């Protein structure tokens, strides 16, 4: 039987809706349209006349939240520059810093955050001391906080274990890394031009051989990445540790200056200041050289300068005392 | 605003007058069931109105109607299998039966057409109905199906071959 496909389909045109059914559905649709009118535009026109009123009434919650955020944000910002004893100092330490601390995750970040807190307390000691309103209680409290934060920073990076376990092998790890890089380079090049023609051009014919070689190169690349990450972590931990030591040294120096400026028990204060300066110097001298960290080198230099400056101040004060005794 | 609303209503009812037959034919050849096809037409236009009433915008009403009908047909297939087309010759509701020789011949040809289409896989049946019964262009089918024109052309080519094979042309 021969059938023309176009003619064959042409017969479908004889199929149509019966007039009764078509009219029936139309009537139902007309009723449905009346029951479900287009309302979107009408709502929009009503909104035009009382736009602000409607907006505010519908967004009361949002406006309230924005207001609270504005007030809290402004207070928080004002509190940032306060010192112990100021009205908003509690907002700075109990709200601003606590809230920021909630968003700190990971041991490295936690260590950095604790160092920043220690630095903040240190700056506060400096400012109070400069304004000559650093009380004994405040000094002890801030000192306790600094020790606490620096200890937390060191604890967060588990520095002792990492350094003792890996420091010796650091050089050998770098050497291993360089060897692996040399071994892997030709495979990486092959992988990057992985079309069959290119592989044939470099003399690799067998598909299985190519697969094995690429797999091996992938393994090597993964191990290199792992080693690099490990080295990076160790380096970061080391930097954090040094930063913590410098902060402790600076704290000793501030304390020494405070002792030097104390008026009543002059000789005992001098002795105390002398001891604190030696302690700071010892810490600074024990910091390893060539850290390759500009920030640390600068902090170390600043601590040494501060130490010299305070020593000079101490010696001058000693001479004044000796003259007075004579 | 009332004027805009009335205009939308008017356009929608005009679209019904113009395209309801085509949508019915499409549904009929897809589901091979006259009653179900009628319900699908009603459902299609109801859904399109709901979309318009909620502020939806339609650029090409014909393509949109096919898209909605197509989705409803897919739902229909999900719910239950189609009834056998062997009973189709016995159903004459779509056209009042007349005992003329010409009419009997016409009905038997439609029976053959639906029976042949029913032997095709649904993805082939769908494009054949859209292309040859609904008279939609490849571009329109690709828009309705949200597929590339190339994909539609390939499927249509395969469906035509399959149909020829069934009809032994």
Structural write-up:
The complex is a heterodimer of chains A (326) and B (169). With 326 residues, chain A is mainly α. Chain A contains 14 helices and no strands. Among the domains of chain A are: 49-160 and 167-181, no CATH class; 231-325. Residues 160-170 and 186-196 of chain A have low confidence and may be disordered. Chain B folds into 2 domains: 1-83, Rna Polymerase Sigma Factor, Chain: A (Orthogonal Bundle); 99-169, Winged helix-like DNA-binding domain superfamily/Winged helix DNA-binding domain (Arc Repressor Mutant, subunit A), CATH 1.10.10.10. The A-B interface holds A 1-3, 5-6, 8-9, 11-18, 21-22, 25-26, 28-30, 32-33, 36-42, 45 and B 1, 4-5, 8-9, 12-13, 16-17, 20-21, 24-25, 28-29, 38, 41-42, 45-46, 49-50, 52-55, 93-95, 106, 109-110, 113, 132-133, 160, 163-164, 167-169.
Tell me which CATH architecture of the largest domain in chain B applies here: Orthogonal Bundle
Strand content range of chain A: under 5%
CATH topology of the largest domain in chain B: Rna Polymerase Sigma Factor, Chain: A
Could you tell me which chain pair has the largest interface and how many residues each side has?
A-B, 32 and 41 residues
Largest sheet of chain A: none
Instruction: Summarize the helix and strand pattern of chain B as letters.
Output: HHHHHHH
Write the layout of secondary structure elements.
The complex is a heterodimer of chains A (326) and B (169).
Chain A: H1 5-10, H2 19-35, H3 40-49, H4 51-58, H5 60-79, H6 89-102, H7 107-130, H8 136-156, H9 159-166, H10 170-192, H11 196-201, H12 207-261, H13 266-286, H14 294-325
Helix pairs in contact in A: 3-4, 7-8, 7-12, 8-12, 9-12, 10-12, 12-13, 12-14, 13-14
Chain B: H1 2-31, H2 34-53, H3 61-79, H4 101-119, H5 122-133, H6 138-145, H7 149-167
